[in-house]
Design brief:
Blueprint: H1 13-31, H2 35-56, H3 71-95, H4 101-127, H5 133-159, H6 162-181, H7 185-212
Helix pairs in contact: 2-3, 2-7, 4-5, 5-6, 6-7
């Protein structure tokens, strides 16, 4: 019986192509992004956090649900911190074993998020106190959402993701609508359209991946 050499080169060009596709599939699965762990935590943070802001600081300072003044913002920041931890862990796992340009793109993009928000926070911190409280909250919220939408569209250009670009553009549109609607309404629009949109996007991407397996 002739022994089988597992390390023998492919016997034909077709075998080589099949082997390449098999290895690409293995590598792709290893570094694939779980959309539920990436999008849903941020979606829940925005949905709950901005939803509480709307219920406590509604249009014309109307209070729909009585709650401590600090509760909406603290809830939003805590949930966003948890979402950031989830995103960081997912990104680290995704980048494990990845070198070269792909690793550099992910690292640079991560630092871009941090530096952009640091710059925005420093700038707004200097001028926000000059505004009345409702407009001050609107300025912080719309600036943050606007930066997130821009970063999504930049990420779409880096990774050639149509889904990221569409969602970034969607965030831009609803952010503009929220600003025009005014304080209170902006929180409701971002809660439903932004937070809800992130949850829906994560579920759609998960469904698409499951169908492609």
């Amino acid at each position: 019986m002739t022994p089988v050499d597992d390390e023998a080169p492919p016997g034909s060009a077709a075998d080589s192509l099949a082997l390449i596709r098999k290895e690409q599939a293995v590598v792709g699965k290893a570094i694939s992004l779980n959309p539920m762990l990436y999008y849903v935590p941020w979606g829940l943070a925005w949905f709950i956090g901005f939803g509480l802001l709307f219920l406590r600081y509604g249009p014309d300072s109307r209070v729909y649900v009585a709650m401590p003044d600090w509760l909406p913002l603290v809830t939003l920041f805590v949930l966003m911190a948890l979402a950031m931890v989830s995103t960081t862990l997912v990104s680290i796992v995704r980048q494990r074993g990845v070198e070269g340009q792909s690793a550099w793109k992910g690292t640079a993009y991560g630092f871009a998020w941090f530096l952009s928000f640091a710059g925005m926070g420093t700038t707004l911190g200097r001028i926000a106190d000059l505004l009345p409280e409702p407009e001050r909250g609107l300025l912080w919220a719309c600036s943050s959402v606007g930066l997130v939408s821009a970063m999504y569209m930049c990420g779409a250009a880096i990774w050639l993701s149509r889904d990221m670009f569409i969602f970034g553009a969607w965030l831009t549109v609803i952010n503009i609508v929220g600003v025009l609607a005014g304080p209170g309404w902006h929180s409701l629009i971002i809660s439903l359209g932004g937070g809800g949109g992130l949850i829906v996007l994560g579920l759609l991407l998960l469904f698409r991946e499951s169908k492609g397996r």
